[in-house]
Structure formats: structure tokens, C-alpha cells
Amino acid sequence: MQPIHDLTHPRFLKDELHCHLYGCLTPEDLWRLGRDRYEGVATRLDWYADEYAKAYGRRPNPKHYWSKDSGLELLRQDFLFTSPNPFTRFQASFNLAIALLPITPNDTTVLRHVITAHASCGIDYSEYRLFVPPHLNPDETSLYLATAADTTLELARDLKGAFAPKLVFSIMRRSESGIKQYEVLRSVLAAKPDRHDVVVGIDFCGMEEHHPPHLTTLLVKQILADNAADSSQALAILYHVGESFTDKTLASAVRWVSEAATMGVHRLGHALALGIEPSLYLGQTVNELAGERRRHLEWLLAGQSWLKNCGYHGDYDAFKKELMTLASRHDDDYIATIWTEAQASDCRMLQNAVMKQLTKGQAIIESCPTSNMLIGNLTKETHPLPRFIAAGLNVIIGADDPGIFSTSLAREEQRLVTEFSWTDEQLRFAQELARHARSGLLVRQIEPSAK
After folding, report:
1. Nearest-angstrom CA–CA distance, 441 and 418
2. pTM score, two decimals?
3. SS3 assignment, position 304
């Protein structure tokens, strides 16, 4: 089996703490794994082609990936996401993996392939985020979680410590559905305690727009309470936030990062809104729900004390007046805001205050440079990573979806050196931080290994 990443082994970065299992699949992986199954999923591949056409204006013929001599190159061209484009195009490309390899309760093909490949790539440890499909019923969800955990235990034993694979399950952001998935996971772990050796966390990802952090408050509280009741079986809470925010202003997205951190989550995924330069949005019109704006104003007023202590000196009288004008607006009404220099300046001050808040709280941000540059249309000049570092935030590096982005932890390290001018000392520090930020170490009161 060919390794997923063909670049020279990382010099310093050895812990991959932010990668999604299916996102690790390369075009070569899909081509090999699809040779014997593509005809059996023809309807799903038609769906992929239809969605691809909506996003790109061109409909591919998936059968050609395996029926033509140039099939692998065709697949590579359609699947790889290596130029800045909207998230809709990323999803359209990624749909090939979803169509070709549907998640079923007891299929371990992708899990075995990825872990086996990663074991030969020069990293010591990896946490794989596995999506828990909402369409599975409780029994199917239980089988899916148990099979993934037991397979990872088996592979970990075979690797004999040379490489440590761990699992983080991505559940739904809304508490009512997420709680059900979480309860099934707790039951699966209780049925076989050694599954805790490989299942180390809960992840909240998927669509961020219109899914504010407060929707997960009850579930996060439940997880934290269960952690406190038995720290030996605690699960870290990882939270994607501030990565995609087309439904609100940048200022509201900054608030979301703060709210997620305040809930007590253990690592923040991406958090781009926290450090993106607000002037990049000058002149743009943002349509935000009146309910979202109202919540933002209420948050500013309620947090006036700590915000001032962290350096944010907004016009609180103006906030009160605006809140009064919103009293007659329905939550679902849209408010159009044209981003001005004054708003950019205010947002910059708010970002600095929240970064100071997060620094005090020892928050950990998972930064994925290549992913952010491609989906977020950022460059080395506009990526918030340097600003995070200058603010003293704890930042670890991940590859996110290395297969479709044609990257790896090694390539991320290379990018840090060549584009962000990181020194060996910075890389060494990032690796040491990552080693201590492993999910199990954050919540289970155990010491990090020598590796």
C-alpha cells in the first residue's frame, strides 16, 4: 500500500491533531479503492456529477475515471482542490469520496487504509475525525462506533507503539440530535472500556453557518459533567468555529469564537475570524439576521466589564440605542450592513480583546494553513496565523483534509518555513505544544509519552 503522503518526513511536527478521515484520501486512493466498486454505486456517482456541475458548470463522467487509460489523471483533475475557490466547490469535489465510499456501520475500508498509510509517513500520533451520519438509527450508530473503535484498537496493537492512531467522533451541532449520538457513544465505550484507549474526543464540525455555539451548550455541559465524574474516561471537546461565516458580520463571528471558548471546549478549530484583518471586507455588504445582530449587541453589553479590561472600548450607548431599534424586528429579518472603516476599526479592537481573553484562558487554536488559504481564499499576507502568534495564543498545526488538498503535515511544516518564516525554534515549540495538547492528555490527567 502506498503512503498517503509522499513528501520527506516532517523534521519537527510529529503530531497530527486536526485531520478528517475521509479527507486523508488522495486521488490515487480513490482510484484504487474504486476500481472494484464504482459500478455498484453508479447512482451515487451520478449525484456527485450533478452536484459537481452545479458548482463548476461542467459535468464530469465518473465512469471514465476507471474505464479510460487517462482515468486516474481525470480523477485527479476533478478531485484535487489546490486553487482558492468557494466552499461550495470544495464540497462538490469532496463529494466523489462520499459517493464512492458511503459510510456504513461495519465497513472499515477507509479507516484501515488511512491508518496503515499514515503509519509509514514519519508521524508519531494522529487523531482522526470520523463523521457520525445522522441518518443512522441508534443500533446502526452503535455498530458504526464500536466497529471503528475496535478496528483502531486492532491496528494500534499491530503497530506496537510505532504509531498511535486515535479517534474523535464528529457529531451534530444541535444539542437534541447531538445528545442522542453522544449517548450512544457513551454506551459503546462503557460496553468495552479499552475502547477509551483510542476514542479520545468529540468534534463539532460540518456546516457552521446558522449553527451558533449556544445550540450546543447543553451537550457541552453534559460532556464536561461526565468528564468530571470520571476523568479516566474523559473526552476532549474539539470545536470548529470562525472558519466559515457568510451568514454574519466578521464581528459576530469573533463573538462565536469567544462563546465557544467560554463554554469550556478544549481546542478551537481554525478560528480564522479571530485574526483576519477586518479591512479586507471594506465596502462589502453583509446580510445578517436581526436575531444574530440582537444577540451580538446583548453579548457586548453583558460582557462590558471583561471586554473593557481586555482593551475593547466600544460605544456602549450606541449599542443600547441600536438594540432598542431592533425591538420591532423579527429574528428572521435580514439586516444589510456595508462594512466601513469605522466598523473595521471597531472589529479589530474586538478581535484583540477576545484574543487577550483566550490567551488568559490558555485556549488552543488548531491552524490549518493550506486548507484556510484554499477555502478561505487567504494568502500568506492575509492568513491570521502571524497575528495569532504575535498575540501569544497557543497554536498547533494540522493538515485538515490532506488528500484533497495535496498536502500533509510535512508540507504544512514546509509552508511554515518558506511562507511564514518560521524558525526551527518555533517548529520545535509547536510540536511540544501539540504533544501536550493531545486530546487524552488535556482531559485525563496523564503524562505525555516520551515521543
Report:
1. 31
2. 0.94
3. helix
